[in-house]
Amino acid sequence: MPTLDRIAKNHSFIRGTLNHLVNNGGAVRILYGGSVKPDNVTNISRIDEVDGMLVGGASLESRDFLAISTAFAG
Predict the structure, then answer these.
(1) 35 pLDDT higher than 70
(2) Which of 8, 17, 42, 63 has the most CB atoms lying inside 10 A of its own CB?
(3) Rounded CA separation 10/65 (Å)
(4) Which range marks the domain in which residue 49 is found?
């Protein structure tokens, strides 16, 4: 899994590219699609350019998915 700093830099790069290429690029939601788990969702959700997350394997375990969705919504 990438570091929080790497996630922030990648999302910032994507945001900058969108702003350069598309009118109102700031309105485009950028989702993080890495390994999201209950123990890292809070830190990832605090990154400015992360607008949401794609949850993969953790969605198969109801407790994990509930913890993730609750943490991100909060």
Answers:
(1) yes
(2) 8
(3) 25
(4) 4-73
